[in-house]
Automatic annotation (TrEMBL):
SUPFAM superfamilies: FAD/NAD(P)-binding domain (SSF51905), FAD/NAD-linked reductases, dimerisation (C-terminal) domain (SSF55424). The lineage of its organism: Bacteria, Pseudomonadati, Pseudomonadota, Alphaproteobacteria, Acetobacterales. Its cofactor is FAD. Keywords: Disulfide bond, FAD, Flavoprotein, NAD, Oxidoreductase, Redox-active center. Its EC number is 1.8.1.4. Residues 5-325 form the FAD/NAD(P)-binding domain. Belongs to the class-I pyridine nucleotide-disulfide oxidoreductase family. This is Dihydrolipoyl dehydrogenase. It is an enzyme of class 1 (oxidoreductase). It comes from Acidocella aquatica.
Length: 463
């Protein structure tokens, strides 16, 4: 007879492993199926963690090579050992994935090793063995979107996975797609010496971000040496032993030109991944793009089958997947789990960092909401000056009548940490005035947030 569980989670990424842990905490008998050799999904193995390890190493190198002189510190010639950087990245990833294995053992979660496929509404098969469960959660994540005419070989034409594994700094790196992956991984290789050119279909980079922030972001990256081909599409790629020749055309039509690259990074978005899952055997509905369809409580159209994370609608972010994992486990235990989709932060871990929560100006305009803007530059912040990191600003959007915080956008040093305060404020329904009246330690970068909140009422103190 098939082994039976209260809950089987398919996929051990941030959505799946967190859901499994929370369900086990709540007393369920839980199994998690993972086909990769290590736990943690895209995020820990080939996403968030390895990319941040390389961003950190390349930033430390860049600081040592270019950032010390201003502080009166002289060092000899600074060089780097890419093999060691990559090995360190591997160690960071290994420690994290082993950490999840430890948490599974601690919470008595069974790791079923292999690829799951549905055999019926409450039954799956993994490597020829049948398992059943009262509830099954699909948390199978996402994969990178392919582009016709640009065949990925993960050597010359790479996705993020290959771009994290390069054993040599490319002389010329062409990134297709001016989104989060392209700009983060572009930053890694640019800092280590690559000439990075970004080909973006739209006439702006990072389309989901507030327009003013995107513009400042592009200016900053341009100063760092990035080149941008906005409003262009790639129509073909020819790979040779020495590199890749890309053919590009203006998106609106016009003369084609060619771009030479040593490495091409294809990063035009990610899509839901359900390959081999045999959704049809269970009768689970997905949309035309492959996203598993769910209701407000993560239930699919089939009773007892749920889905969370990148495989369903919403931002493809690790912390969004985690929150959904917790909420669903609590709902299955009869509690009132929920996720506030208006308070999910987004962070781009470049330097300067870019962080946001809530609505952009463009979204408020489109919705006809009357709002006020408070802005404050890092240039006018004492700590930023002491650090020598004066680029960027914080921008707060509040309802014109009620003063309620609607959105917050920061480009600047440590923006990803600074945004947390504004996520909390939005979660608690705070006004700009509430944030402005909170005592912020001096001298800290967080005073930029307070001043931006004051500026929403025209009374910033230090500008
Ligand atoms: P995933 O993490 O994709 O996990 C799904 C797991 O399911 C995989 O391990 C897969 O092997 C397994 N699986 C699939 N099918 C089966 C099957 N049939 N049987 C068994 N197992 C199966 N997000 C952030 O918030 N911050 C970041 O800094 C960040 N950086 C990123 C950098 C890169 C380069 C990339 C690619 C992504 C990044 N993301 C980041 C996005 C983040 O990785 C995803 O949003 C997150 O991993 C989604 O979690 P998930 O649990 O839905 O799925
Ligand atoms: P993205 O959606 O962020 O950006 C894709 C970009 O490619 C967009 O600007 C889009 O206009 C452009 N594009 C689309 N088709 C194109 C074409 N044919 N030619 C040229 N440009 C084209 O997607 P990306 O960067 O691949 O990242 C995928 C997801 O992974 C992100 O949306 C994010 O959710 C997640 N991620 C999150 C990170 C973080 O939180 N720091 C880091 C990395 C990834």
């Amino acid at each position: 007879m098939a082994e039976n569980f209260d809950l089987i989670v398919i996929g051990s990424g941030p959505g799946g492993y967190v859901c499994a842990i929370r369900a086990a905490q709540l007393g369920m008998k839980v199994a998690c199926v993972e086909k990769r050799a290590t736990l943690g999904g895209t995020c820990l193995n080939i996403g968030c963690i390895p990319s941040k390890a390389l961003l950190q190493s390349s930033e430390v190198f860049h600081q040592a090579a270019h950032g010390l002189k201003d502080h009166g510190i002289a060092v000899g010639e600074v060089s780097f050992d890419l093999a060691r950087m990559q090995a360190r990245k591997g160690e960071v990833v290994g420690a994290n994935t082993k950490g999840i294995e430890f948490l599974f053992k601690k919470n008595k979660i069974t790791w079923i090793k292999g690829a799951a496929s549905f055999t019926g509404p409450n039954a799956i098969e993994v490597a020829g063995t049948a398992y059943t469960a009262k509830s099954i959660v699909i948390a199978t994540g996402s994969e990178s979107v392919p582009l016709k005419g640009v065949e990925v070989d993960e050597t010359r034409i790479v996705t993020s996975t290959g771009a994290l594994e390069l054993d040599k700094v490319p002389g010329r790196l062409v990134v297709i797609g001016g989104g989060v992956i392209g700009l983060e991984l572009g930053s890694v290789w640019a800092r280590l010496g690559a000439q990075v050119t970004v080909v973006e279909f739209l006439d702006r980079i990072t389309p989901g971000l507030d327009g003013e922030i995107s513009k400042a972001f592009q200016q900053s990256l341009t100063k760092q040496g990035f080149k941008f081909k906005l409003g262009h599409k790639v129509t073909g790629a020819k790979t040779s032993k020495t590199g890749v020749t890309l053919t590009i055309e203006p998106a609106k039509g016009g003369a084609a030109e060619t771009l030479e690259a040593d490495i091409v990074l294809l990063a035009i978005g990610r899509r839901a991944y359900t390959e081999g899952l045999n959704l049809a055997a269970a009768g689970v509905a997905a949309d035309a793009r492959g996203l598993v369809l769910t209701d407000g409580h993560y239930a699919t159209n089939v009773p007892g089958i749920y889905a969370i994370g990148d495989v369903i609608a919403g931002p493809m972010l690790a912390h969004k997947a985690e929150e959904e994992g917790v909420a669903l486990a609590e709902l299955l235990a009869g509690q009132a789990g929920h996720v506030n989709y208006d308070a999910i932060p987004g962070v781009v871990y470049t330097w300067p960092e870019v962080a946001n929560v809530g609505k952009t100006e463009e979204e408020l305009k489109a919705a006809g909401v009357e709002y006020k803007v408070g802005k404050f530059p890092f240039m006018a912040n004492g700590r930023a000056r002491a650090m020598g990191e004066m680029e960027g600003f914080a921008k707060i959007l509040a309802d014109k009548t009620t003063d309620r915080l609607l959105g917050a956008h920061i480009i600047g040093p440590d923006a990803g940490t600074l945004i947390a305060e504004l996520v909390t404020a939005i979660e608690f329904g705070a006004s700009a005035e509430d944030v402005a009246r909170i005592c912020h330690a001096h001298p800290t970068l967080s005073e930029v947030v307070k001043e931006a909140a004051l500026a929403a009422d025209g009374r910033a103190l230090h500008i």
